[in-house]
Write a structure and sequence with these properties.
Layout (H helix, E strand, L loop, with lengths): L2 E6 L3 H12 L4 E7 L2 H10 L4 E5 L7 H6 L6 E6 L5 H6 L4 E4 L4 H15 L11 E2 L5 E6 L2 E6 L3 E7 L2 E6 L3 E4 L3 H5 L6 E5 L2 E4 L5 E2 L3 E4 L2 E4 L5 H9 L1
Parallel strand pairs: 1-2, 1-3, 3-4, 4-5
Antiparallel strand pairs: 6-7, 7-8, 9-10, 9-13, 10-11, 12-13, 14-15, 15-16
């Protein structure tokens, strides 16, 4: 599923930063980036919006006041340079409250909260993987069975639009799940190196500025992830 997003902030640099963060997540589509609540109101009348990033301190009409007046508001993540609005933001049932400047790591956590809220509590036969307390394995539904998958056996994970393909050494599994949501089930040994790829760092045999080698397999490193990958392996 693709989630349609609206960014509302009177500061151009702040808008551009959120737009850049969103561009790294293939499950999210930017509909518009607006400089005011008035512009945002027009977009909301014209299109379905699933998630809105809304600045609180804006001229003419504050973000929180604008949100209160919406009859059918989308889910919202408030952004601001001031901590004082945190309580008000959560009273409006916001997904999260982000303080500027917004790092990608903090942004990613807010996105993960949003995605988790979209998932119903799965029944025993659900397609949604489940984890144990120690997160050493997960269950995925395959051929009408719940198949146990040990995390240490995963080599890498590839996004296929609304599905992901989990690559093990000797087999593959295709699951209807978003890559961002699936990442939340994994532990510290997994690293996102591309908008479409997550790797098990324990399986890495070599790497360059452009790709990571997992034995005979080469996984590309996305332009937006190169610095993160280099810093990870050089730490």
């Amino acid at each position: 599923m693709t989630y349609k997003c609206l960014v509302v902030d009177d500061e151009e640099l702040a808008r551009e930063l959120i737009v850049d963060h969103l561009s790294k997540l293939e499950e999210f589509e930017l509909v518009a980036a607006c400089a005011s609540a008035i512009e945002a109101r027009t977009i909301l009348k014209q299109q379905r919006i699933d998630l809105m990033f809304l600045d609180i301190e804006m001229p003419v009409l504050k973000g929180t006041d604008f949100f209160k007046h919406l009859l059918q508001p989308p889910r919202v993540i408030f952004t601001t340079a001031y901590r004082d609005y945190a309580v008000e933001g959560f009273e409006l049932n916001a997904v999260d409250y982000l303080l500027k400047p917004i790092t990608f790591d903090r942004f990613f956590k807010a996105i993960d909260k949003f995605l988790n809220q979209q998932l119903p509590s799965p029944p025993a036969t659900s397609n949604v993987p489940s984890t144990t307390a120690k997160a050493t394995y997960i269950f995925i539904r395959k051929d009408r069975k719940q198949v146990k998958l040990f995390l240490h056996e995963i080599v890498y994970i590839e996004s296929l639009k609304d599905y992901i393909q989990i690559h093990e050494t000797n087999q593959k599994h295709v699951v209807k799940y978003s890559l961002v949501s699936f990442i939340s089930l994994l532990d510290h040994r997994f690293l996102r190196v591309h908008r479409s790829y997550v790797i098990n760092v324990d399986k890495v045999t070599a790497y360059t500025k452009h790709d990571v080698e997992l034995g005979p397999i080469e996984v590309p490193i996305g332009e937006n992830y190169k610095q993160t990958v280099q810093e990870y392996f050089q730490a």
